[in-house]
Design brief:
This protein is mainly beta. It has a single domain (2-126), classed as PCu(A)C copper chaperone (Immunoglobulin-like). 7% of the residues lie in helices and 57% in strands. Strands 1, 2, 3, 4, 5, 6, 7, 8, 9 and 10 form a ten-stranded mixed sheet that branches. Strand 4 and strand 5 form a beta hairpin. The longest helix is centred in the N-terminal third of the chain and has 9 residues, at 2-10. Residues 6-10 have low confidence and may be disordered. The chain binds copper (II) ion. Copper (II) ion binds next to strand 8.
């Protein structure tokens, strides 16, 4: 029974450790981070993310190019079969535009993958 449950959990796309950097006063752009696990036997392609606390969410990557730290937008994030991709400060992240996190502690996020699969995650709002 336990083994069966573990197999079901492993064979899925999951988002864990999600958190949003709370917006600074007067700012409406912020970043969010999480771990995206792909327990399936096929690569998963994250194509879109949505949350009620922002009017749009972009997939971003921070890169250090010849000493200059730059962000660029990504069309997609590939999560290889059987692995976890970690979105972290200084690396890939979610960029929230027109964000409003005032007075809330948690926000719902929906992750859309190629092929129409979706998975949800509860993101904690953390002080900046
Ligand atoms: Cu960014």
């Amino acid at each position: 029974m336990l083994a069966g449950s573990a197999l079901v959990l492993a064979a899925a796309l999951a988002v864990a450790n999600g958190h949003v950097r709370d917006t600074l006063p007067g700012q409406t752009v912020t970043a969010a981070y999480c771990d995206i696990s792909n327990g399936t036997s096929e690569d998963a392609v994250l194509v879109a993310v949505g949350t009620p606390v922002a009017s749009s969410v972009e997939l971003h990557e921070t890169r250090n190019e010849a000493g200059m730290v730059r962000m660029r937008r990504l069309d997609r994030i590939v999560v290889p079969a059987g692995s976890t991709v970690r979105l972290r400060p200084g690396g890939m992240h979610l960029m929230l535009f027109d964000a409003d996190t005032a007075g809330i502690h948690e926000a719902a996020f929906v992750f859309e993958f190629g092929g129409g699969q979706t998975t949800r995650g509860a993101f904690e709002i953390r002080p900046p």
